[in-house]
# Entry
Amino acid sequence: MKRFQHFVLVGAIALIAGCDGAEVADQDAASSTTADSAYLASAEPAGAMPVGEAREKAADGEELTLVGLIGGSTEPFVDGLAAFTIVDPKIPYCADEEGCPTPWDYCCTQDQVKDNIATVKVVDESGAPVSKTARELLGVNELATVVVHGVAKRDDQGNLTVETSDVFVRSSK
# Structure
């Protein structure tokens, strides 16, 4: 009998975790933990441009302000560095009813991500990348909306990276 109760308990926990994965992800998405960072902006920079528009217009070396949601893959944060990818807010991530456990990977709209994604790299005053994960440094999670002001870097494939030392994290709804 105890074995049956154990089986039912494990099944109930798995059902709750499996069915509500997207909801759990949403709750964790934009939560700010105890970040204590000189890289967090206290006020949102004005004139933020969505990622897709910036990919079309920004030139290498140009200063810009960019807005996006942290995501674009199952692992948008770079291990050991304060760097992550953001996606244009106009691109919808997977809805709760689609049952996606990682809505920030945009698996339901992946074809739209390619032209609407950028990398954000947090740099120190000398321009060197900060060697601490952005999650720890800024207290951000997947699907947090961030506004960054920095310098655009373009590569040969047209990919956009913004080097910044100011990240504003919008509060979640």
